[in-house]
Amino acid sequence: MFFLTVKGTEIGGKNQMTDVTGIWFSYWRIDRNYADFTLIEGSKIPATFGGMNLSFPLQFPVLKTKRLVLRAVNDHDAAVIFRLHHDERVQEFRGEPVFEKEEEAMKRIFYWRKLFANGNGIRWGIEMKATNKLIGTIGFKSISHQHLRADIGYELDPDWWNRGIMTEAIETVLNFGFEEMKLHSVEANITPGHIASQRVLEKSGFRNEAHYHENYFYKGWWDSGIWSIRK
Fold first, then answer.
1. How confident is the model at residue 155, as a pLDDT?
2. Mean pLDDT by 10 residues, the chain (231 residues)
3. The domain spanning residue 38 has which CATH number?
4. Which end of the chain, N or C, is surrounded by fewer C-beta atoms within 10 Å?
């Protein structure tokens, strides 16, 4: 095991306390496989903003549906994560480069682990319950504790498109966010013209609330469509 503290304190040490995003004081333990996050020192002291508290899980939550298991992504998933982010069909509307090396997938996995450890987001792997096969990911890319709002993101293996998989995953994550984390609203930032993603969001109850013109640059200017759902 090794210990990770966040926001300006060193990795390692003993009985350290550190401010996590200004929301609570905590001390996290992460195993070598970056799959087990546990609060082991300090107490979770949620900040109060007008009487509203966000409840962030202390241990990584595993969610199950009829067909899916949503669980932490680990090192053994690197090949799948690389394949997804290397696939031009998956990346077409994302405004970011495709992965060229599996090492990039490992870095992304570690980033997702840190995101959870810092209390700033959760990324689940989407696994088929019948085969234990990882086919995509979904999660809250960022969380505003003050405003009880999260930004959702996702990707799915094209072999599993048009089967209702992502709708099933989104609805499960939304239920967890609203009921367990006490979120007030969730937004999705997608590229206008990404019809498949738009339809999935509509099925899940999202509404298109804004269209930003040329607000993002990657090999040219991109528009952004902001979709949102409230509890």
1. 97
2. 30 32 35 39 42 88 98 97 97 94 97 96 98 98 96 98 97 98 98 96 97 95 97 92
3. 3.40.630.30
4. N
Phi first, then psi, for residue 157 (nearest 5°) are -55, 125
CA atoms within 13 A of residue 8's CA, in its CB half-sphere: 6
Length of the chain: 231
Is 124 within 8 Å of 173 (Cβ atoms)? yes
Asked whether 129 and 67 are in contact (CB, 8 A), the reply is: yes
**Which pLDDT score, from 0 to 100, does residue 53 have?**
87
- Distance (Å, whole) CA 101 – CA 66: 34
What is the CA angle 167-124-228, rounded to 5? 50
Let me know: does 216 contact 87? Beta carbons within 8 Å: no
Query: Encoding tokens for residue 104?
Result: 């990039």
pLDDT of the residue at 147: 96
Q: Which residue, chain included where needed, has tokens 């930004």?
A: 151
Domain count, the chain: 1
The domain in which residue 152 lies consists of 2-230
pTM summary value: 0.80
